[in-house]
């Protein structure tokens, strides 16, 4: 197995240890951009869309891969880890480009597992061409994720498992996206459990379970621990998504988030809780009004009032705490390395519980 990867240190004359998942991803995108430019300026623009959404490339997903892998002594060389971690950043970018999931509360990336902040980089499109570019960029990002793993030089026995994990993640992401779209089109009520199922399948599995499983497999973790980490990842992913709803509706990390929250058309657990109670008619009227135009400051204020009066915000905050507790219990029961358990639970308690 060579100590370098095509997108980490090959041809630079520098030690592979100097490279990170971010540099691996940057190398892949620069290489792809140059190839695209030789074919068409428009095609180069599509790759620029991918690069814009991946941001600095040191987001939460690569942090999860690295946190899990570095907790086990049988992990492969650094370039292999870099390539696999970069693959899950590309998977996350693919989901954002097709507007499938919000992967960070309010757009902020937790500082413990990834050092820099990254925000949703999709721009609003007013024409079909822009939407088509995003759809194509999403497909290319997913294809790139497979390529990063396939060319990572991971040991063959682990490579097949990694590709299976990525396939499992992409399969669930598509299912969750389809469920969310169905919920958005439905004229009638959508239950809280239906929305939670879509979040778990479409967000928690690809963005939390999958990178944690991949890192554990790379590190040579026992099968029982990989399974326990997958369970914990699903719980953390649900907590992360719910915390994202709370952050979006309050605008605590992004002043524009409440307006996007109301006009997105996506069903939320917060909204389902309000709709199921006495404030349901007022919430439905507000949602229908915001679906026709940009939410005004008065709309945002009314939404916050309804969420508070209905108790939906407090209920979701408690659901976040319960999900974090379930993740902690899964890690404890699975006898995971103490350092990994402490790192993940510390991050969750600090970043998700309000």
UniProtKB/TrEMBL annotation:
Residue numbers spanned by region Disordered: 1-21, 101-129
In which residue ranges is the amino acid composition biased (Low complexity)? Answer: 1-14
Under SUPFAM superfamilies, the record lists:
Terpenoid synthases
Q: Which InterPro entries match?
A: Isoprenoid_synthase_dom_sf (IPR008949)
The record's Gene3D superfamilies line, in alphabetical order, gives: Farnesyl Diphosphate Synthase
Query: Locations of Polar residues compositional bias?
Result: 101-120
* Record's protein name: Geranylgeranyl diphosphate synthase, type II
Q: Give the organism, scientific name.
A: Kocuria marina subsp. indica
